[in-house]
Description:
By secondary structure, the chain is α+β, with helices and mostly antiparallel strands. It has ten helices and ten strands.
Amino acid sequence: MTPTLLHTALQLASRGLPPLPLRKGKVPFGNCPACVSNTCGGRPNMKTPGTCTCPQPCHAWAAATTDRDVINSPMWRSAWRDAAAVAYHPGGAGLTVVDLDDAAAIAWARETLPATRIVPTTRGEHWIYRGTMPSSNAVRPGIDIKSLMQYARWLGPGSGVVAALPDAVRALAVREPSPPSRVPQTLTVPLRGGQGECRHRTPTYLDRGIAMAEQRITEARSAIHATVYRTFLAVLSTHGRCGCLTEAHVARLFTAAQAKGETARHCTDAWTNARTRLGL
């Protein structure tokens, strides 16, 4: 047996962090004899319990527990004997782990996210926040989100004070709709909406709305893709049906987005997706 792993697991459980043993390659064990090798229909990275008749969920994040009797049970003792590491379920402890896998991801986090507890990893860092959200992989290059229905390797307590989960992290998991087939490469005719003048009081109202949209995009420090899409959606929901938007207005929005690093293709896709969502 490896006493240090079992001891670590019991310590985590006492602090409200649900642990689970990992085999080599960060693969979780099952917690019943029939599922010790994920033989009940599961996969090593499974995010839902298997289809067996175990007395309790037996895979990955679902196996994590703070029950000391389970952690000390004969079956789990066998798992600890063969384990290579300890993992835990962040969502089960009310936490979210921002997994930064390289130097570029760490640099982005230091510039964008509020300070919090940091745990060094083999290649990067885990930034831990208080609060939960859906887990999501590859939200940015080198960045995964591990919270609900996911597990993270335990690499020590780290340093720093755990901060509240910021909106900037939640926004990372926002996905805009997939573009429809045959998305145009350029936007030659931005809208064919209603006819006549803008019904929203005066042309000044539209100009002010476009200026505010430009400012929202320009001031975004994270989740640029999502911010551009949401801004386009807001503009179209207000002015998309009255025929007041011109190519000049759309060009201003595209210019602001491209100044933040977006490509012309992404701008066109985001605009088309927003129109599709609104039925324009």
